[in-house]
Amino acid sequence: MHEILSAARMRAADQATIAGGIPGIELMEAAGRAVAEAAKAMAPDGLVHVLCGPGNNGGDGFVAARLLAEAGRPVSLSLLGARDRLRGDAALAAARWTGPVHPAGPDLPAAALLIDALFGVGLDRPIEGLAAEIVAAVNAAPAPVLAVDVPSGLDADSGQPTGPVIEAEATVTFFRKKPGHLLEPGRSLRGTLELAQIGIADAVLAETGIDGHENVPALWARALPRLTGAAHKYTRGHVAVVSGPATRTGAARLAAGAALRAGAGLVTLASPGSALLVNAAHLTAVMLARMDGPGDLSALLADPRYTAAVLGPGMGLGPEARALTEAALAAPAALVLDADALTQFADDPDRLFSAIAARPAPVALTPHAGEFARLFPDLAKLPLKTGRARAAAERSGAVLVLKGADTVIAAPDGRLAINANAPPWLATAGSGDVLAGIAGGLLGQGMPALEAAAAAVWMHGAAANEVGPGLIAEDLAPALRPVLATLIDRNGRRT
Ligand SMILES: NC(=O)C1=CN([C@@H]2O[C@H](COP(=O)(O)OP(=O)(O)OC[C@H]3O[C@@H](n4cnc5c(N)ncnc54)[C@H](O)[C@@H]3O)[C@@H](O)[C@H]2O)[C@@H](O)CC1
Ligand SMILES: Nc1ncnc2c1ncn2[C@@H]1O[C@H](COP(=O)(O)OP(=O)(O)O)[C@@H](O)[C@H]1O
Ligand SMILES: [K+]
């Protein structure tokens, strides 16, 4: 159920199902029924006003209106465009509606609920003219809005408004979620999301292919590190985190603490001599090693017990910092490169990519949009966030974590997950450092890179939800405990 389908693949799934012998009107009846049920739950009484568009999204609206009326609810309906222009299943659905069909306009009745069945995945241009006036009126109306499939005006693939767009309290979509339900601002515009099954068989996915998955534990839970009675700290991995200079040490400590909480057996902060005392003053379970340049870091990471390293948080730019990252790239450990460790390669991203290609252990890159644009200036212009992440993973040979409210995780082989559990209070200084640490902690325990990165992003969001508003980055690592408890039981088994 967690596969994601683009509008084109969803159309292919509809068509394959109809070609397989299930009439389109049956799918539409099931879709309209799901919408009617959601409408009853949202507004137990009062008038429901259904706004129908000229395509099959409008057809779903006609079905919902009929079923609500049959259930005894007061229903009114308006249609954008002429009734005799309706085609196919939508025309059939409209023929089954026996109530009046009002011409759609910005004058809306005082309703308990508005159903937006104007445009779905068939939207092919920005909404304008009369339809735009209707959208504005719907958004200004006091009644809550239930969107059919997608809020009208939203691009189902990008999550971007194409122009005027409906702001919905809730959306009912069919068969599988679309990228635009998870990518911002679509995730905010669609309100709560219900997924309804309408008679399309899961097997159709083998034919259509998928556009990725929603980032849920089912994707990676089986790959989580497994604790057994025979575990000792070295079997749980040793993660090195590179500290910045004396005036910028906090970010690396946040990452180190998070790596330990994520289950790494040992975490060592590799600190410049000048920053040893300030780091020592703040550390207990995290260990400290003196590291005064790339030679020291190479020597440290040459110890094969170091299974992962995290570089970037608070690290700084310039040739010395860059030389540290080069040393880590030449070492055998898995790597998380974040923040400054990415920006260091802005002048020569290909140098980073060839170093990644030359190493046996995996690399995860965790840029926010600004860092991404420095490494992938051409890809940053691609219209879809999913497309940007996928192309960058392919080019870099690394697992790409393109951060934001709607973080996208992509592997070089094309696998992709969109994360949708992060609350807005995660947007606070240092929270990215914690994410890098969690990813390092999971990689260090031997988790495969895509799974480790996706799990880290999900745990980060779940920990933020545990904490709630008011969160500061320091709160995140402790909040991993209840999150891990939902994933791993006390006997070390994955739940
Ligand atoms: N048989 C099927 O394929 C099923 C389709 N379903 C519904 O059908 C929807 C897709 O239906 P359609 O492909 O007919 O597409 P839509 O109903 O989303 O919209 C397409 C219609 O709107 C017009 N249009 C597009 N953008 C416009 C704009 N900006 N201004 C004015 N007119 C515009 C198009 O010319 C076309 O007439 C889905 O979102 C879903 O709600 C469901 O009923 C399930 C079954
Ligand atoms: N509006 C938001 N909603 C949810 N999560 C967000 C939002 N904005 C940022 N985040 C998350 O917060 C973290 C911020 O990381 P980053 O940009 O590197 O900041 P910093 O360097 O201050 O830690 C990322 O994990 C990102 O996905
Ligand atoms: K709609």
Automatic annotation (TrEMBL):
Q: Which residues form the YjeF N-terminal domain?
A: 10-206
GO biological process: what's one of them?
A: metabolite repair
**Which reaction is the catalytic activity of this chain?**
(6R)-NADHX = (6S)-NADHX; (6S)-NADHX + ADP = AMP + phosphate + NADH + H(+); (6R)-NADPHX = (6S)-NADPHX; (6S)-NADPHX + ADP = AMP + phosphate + NADPH + H(+)
Q: Tell me which Gene3D superfamilies the record gives.
A: 3.40.1190.20, YjeF N-terminal domain
The record ties this protein, via InterPro entries, to: CARKD (IPR000631), Nnr (IPR030677), Ribokinase-like (IPR029056), YjeF_N_dom (IPR004443), YjeF_N_dom_sf (IPR036652)
The record lists AMP as bound by K403, G404, A405, D406, T407, G432
Residues that bind (6S)-NADPHX: 56-60, 120-126, 149, 251, 314, 368, 433
* Known cofactor(s): K(+); Mg(2+)
What Pfam families does this protein's entry cite?
Carb_kinase, YjeF_N
Query: What family does the entry list?
Result: Belongs to the NnrE/AIBP family.
Its assembly, as annotated, is: Homotetramer.
Protein's name according to its UniProt entry: Bifunctional NAD(P)H-hydrate repair enzyme
